[in-house]
Write a structure and sequence with these properties.
- The protein is mostly helical.
- Helix content is 61%, strand content 0%.
- The longest helix has 21 residues.
- It is elongated and about 80 Å long.
- It starts with 10 loop residues before the first helix and ends in a 9-residue tail after the last helix.
- 7% of the residues are buried.
Length: 150
């Protein structure tokens, strides 16, 4: 059940909608032993029951609330190794999103080569698309030296 409020339908109808969804989730977890309900809605409305955990629009959870719910979710469902990978990936993702002020510099090349080595060392998941993207950037800004005729 999403913790996002649907105020277009009014608060009372939002509550009815959430309760219907919650009831359906309950029935599914009772009927199927391999189905689990994750209480994101309850975490926001009960654990974090304060408007400071909402964005200024008073509809969406704030970044603090999202982080809190994510930590709870990952502690509940992810293994230690999966949580470690998520932390590692967060840093790599930040590197992938980095946009240099000056492309084509030695520092930029060093950064891309370090990123490429980091990606190539990942064994947990396929990162071939990311590796290809970094290789393309390296080739674009730093083409291999051409050999002069003998």
């Amino acid at each position: 059940v999403s913790p996002v409020r649907h105020l277009k339908d009014t608060l009372p109808l939002n509550a009815v909608s959430k309760s219907v969804l919650r009831l359906a989730c309950h029935y599914l977890t009772e009927k199927y032993p391999n189905v689990q309900y994750y209480p994101a809605y309850e975490l926001l409305t009960d654990d974090l029951r304060d408007y400071r955990f909402y964005q200024p629009d008073m509809i969406h959870p704030s970044g603090v609330a999202v982080d809190y719910i994510w930590e709870h979710f990952s502690d509940t469902f992810l293994s230690d190794s999966a949580r470690a990978f998520v932390g590692k990936w967060r840093n790599i993702s930040s590197m992938l999103q980095h946009r240099p002020l000056q492309t084509g510099t030695a520092a930029h090349r060093d950064f891309l080569e370090k990123l490429l080595a980091t990606l190539e060392a990942i064994t947990e998941v396929s990162v071939s698309a990311e590796i290809n993207e970094v290789r393309e950037q390296l080739a674009k800004f730093f083409p291999p030296p051409t050999q002069s005729p003998a």
